[in-house]
Design a protein that fits this description.
There is one protein chain. The protein has 264 residues and is of the alpha/beta class. It is built from 9 helices and 9 strands.
Length: 264
């Protein structure tokens, strides 16, 4: 569950979101919409922990996945393969290193202590699904359009679009309770986009997404949060609509007609 209370978001000294309060429950799929430049990405960055709130608070679970619009994989990680990076979403990469060190220690000195330590670690690895992890990671990357012959290369040689797919696969593999995704269909071809739509339809956690992909918003969401910020000088507030993007468009148009009549 994601809980937001009286949240303020500030960009360049200007308050772009004021007093935002909402809750996203498991199976809720929320589309965050508004005009270009309204502050949607800044709000999502605040929800994801990339920006500090100007006021209020964001309560997020420990199992939390955040895809920024321009994800950066650290320079120190560019030598690892995409498979290893995706596995890090659940800490399987660390478990693999640990079990390998224990195996080497056991082979070098096969006494009772080393055999017992390796046996316990191997049993734990099996229990957490470690032996099926690599095939699952490859399935996610294939679904997002990363060809198998690219998954064993160092991340540092991949294109920006390929790196973004690897990072998205890592986040999806993590099994997070809450996902905050900024333009997740960027750099995806039609097949990968369709695969992601299907994945998000079946996702059981709480989802908040910013996207210009209207089909994603229409098929994968159950609520819309409209960031109403009419001008750069104004601060914005959130208006909630139930239903798909198409239903939101109709309801929003009716609200604007009603407000126009009241102003006459």
């Amino acid at each position: 569950m994601l809980r937001v209370r009286d949240l303020g978001v500030e960009v360049g000294g200007r308050l772009v979101v004021e007093s935002a309060t909402f809750t996203v429950l498991p199976r809720d799929k929320v589309g965050l919409v508004g005009r270009n430049g309204a502050g949607k990405t800044s709000l999502l960055r605040t929800l994801g922990g990339e920006l500090e709130p100007a006021g209020g608070r964001v309560e997020r679970p420990a199992d939390f996945g955040y895809l920024p619009q321009d994800p950066r994989i650290g320079k120190d990680l560019e030598g690892r393969t995409p498979v290893t990076h995706v596995l890090s979403g659940r800490g399987i990469d660390v478990e693999l290193e640990r079990i390998e060190k224990l195996r080497i220690a056991m082979e070098e000195r096969p006494d009772e202590r080393n055999v017992e330590r390796y046996t316990r670690a191997e049993e734990h690895f099996r229990t957490i699904g470690g032996y099926a992890a690599e095939s699952e990671a490859r399935r996610l990357m294939a679904g997002l359009g990363l060809s198998d012959n690219r998954t064993e290369l160092p991340i540092g040689v991949l294109s920006g679009g390929e790196r973004r797919r690897v990072e998205l696969a890592r986040i999806l593999y993590g099994g997070s309770e809450v996902l905050c995704l900024d333009e997740p269909t960027n750099h995806l071809d039609v097949e990968a986009r369709d695969w992601l739509l299907e994945f998000l339809r079946g996702y059981r956690g709480a989802l908040v997404v910013v996207s210009h992909d209207l089909e994603l918003l229409d098929e994968a969401i159950t609520r819309v949060l409209h960031l109403d910020r009419p001008s750069e000088a104004a601060s914005g507030h959130l208006v909630e609509y139930r239903g798909t993007y198409s239903q939101y468009v109709a309801a929003r148009a009716e609200d604007e007609r009603r407000l126009a009549r009241q102003a006459m």
